[in-house]
Amino acid sequence: MTGKEYQDLAFTTANKELGHQEQVLTALLGLSGETGEIADIYKKHYFQGHELNLLEVEKEIGDVLWYVALLCTANNLDMSLIMELNIEKLKARYPE
């Protein structure tokens, strides 16, 4: 699956009644919350002795991707292109 395919499928579950600003804010606040949930899983593992549950980490990463897809769609950006541009940037930064 490409990033764009994921983006299009993810958007089928978005609230399409929201305007541009509300979609962007939903995406930004959602990203903040979901990354916090991932951090909390690792905090509990490293500092509170909980077993690391990678299935939960995977689910939360999926939620992060959903919000990234929403942010892309709200701004008419193509996730596949963004992924390619990011790799090109990293290749230029770390040519070795």
Distance between the termini: 28 Å
Helix count from the secondary structure assignment = 4
Shape: globular
Rg computed from alpha carbons, rounded to a whole number of angstroms: 16 Å
Strand content: under 5%
Commentary on this structure:
This protein is mainly alpha-helical. The chain is built from 4 helices and no strands. The radius of gyration is 16 Å and the shape is globular. It starts with a helix and ends with a helix.
Keywords for this entry:
96 residues; mainly alpha; globular
Describe this structure in a few short sentences:
This protein has 96 residues and is mainly α. Helix content is 77%, strand content 0%.
Furnish the topology, listing elements before pairings.
Blueprint: H1 3-11, H2 20-48, H3 54-74, H4 79-93
